[in-house]
Amino acid sequence: MGKVAAKIKVMPNSPDVDLDALQERLEGALPEGAKINGVEREDVAFGLVALFPTVVVPDDAGGTDPVEEAFSEIEGVESVSVENTGRI
Q: Cβ(67)–Cβ(8) under 8 Å?
């Protein structure tokens, strides 16, 4: 069984969202077997900063769908999208 790494773009719903707290909520919402292997931040516009966690999931875990769903339900998240994926 292999593993898949996915870089996921998480957009906060406001520039006022505490990014450190949001990052902690993302880590706490991960489905079983998934882990975050680093988080990048990128300025988007008008003070808005996107988080780009790299999430590692088992190959047989249904892909990134469970992670995307979990992230989408977190308070302060506007949108979630997979930027790229690859096997590791």
A: yes
Question: All domains of the chain, ordered by start, with CATH?
Answer: 3-87 (3.30.70.60)
Rounded to the nearest angstrom, the gap between the alpha carbon of residue 34 and the centroid of all alpha carbons in its chain is: 11
pTM attached to this predicted model = 0.91
Q: Write out 44-62 in H/E/C secondary structure.
A: EECCEEEEEEEEEEECCCC
What are the tens digits of pLDDT across the range 2-19? 899 999 999 999 999 999
Contact between 10 and 71 under an 8 Å Cβ cutoff? The reply is yes
Residue 77 · residue 13 · CB < 8 Å: yes
